[in-house]
Amino acid sequence: MCNEAVLKDGDDLALLRALRTLLNGEKPEEYGTVKPKQARELAKALEEGLYIAFFCGRGPFYGNDGKKFLKEMVNLVAYLNEKANCVLLPLATDFNTMGFYHTILRDGDCDVLGKSLMYDVRDWKPRKGDVVIGLGSDFIWFLSDEQKVRMKTKDVKVISISSYETLTHVNSTVALSCAMAGIEVDDLAYRLDSLPVKLKGIRKPMLPADWEILERLKIFLKI
Description:
single chain; 2 domains; three-stranded parallel sheet
């Protein structure tokens, strides 16, 4: 197993090009923020892999190099497919939104069939006294300018629980960082075909899981 590598914004493209160069048996000129040793380990793992999957979210497409990133990604997948099965799995929704709905439908009594998170949020009219809890979501991204202004004038409080430094997380009243599901803690996720998948943590967590934070909030609030 390769060691994890955390990239800075915009370094995805540099890493992809470095991997392709390494797989061709050449030495890359640039690795981004990833150490050369880590890039070599990853390239070796890709060479030896029997089945390879790339999960691709919307993050790499934020900047001006989105089209270049997609082209490099597709070229890398095509190259790897010459030796082993390799697939590119773009995430269909933000932060596993459909999995969120499956959890509600299974464990709760909310009628959310036929809705999408984006339109739920855009129908919201912030009112004085509102408190919003963002759990692994970046809902502020979908708000209109009018809604953002109303949030400020109505003094709406936002509590964000997330493993990532999202737009919502950095603009929240209270930001609570949590462990990453399937990386640091065990959890249950839902595939794009709706089947549940048990995720096993692969490293020791430094932070509590999101559900643990919610349990502590319930105890504190005596709910």
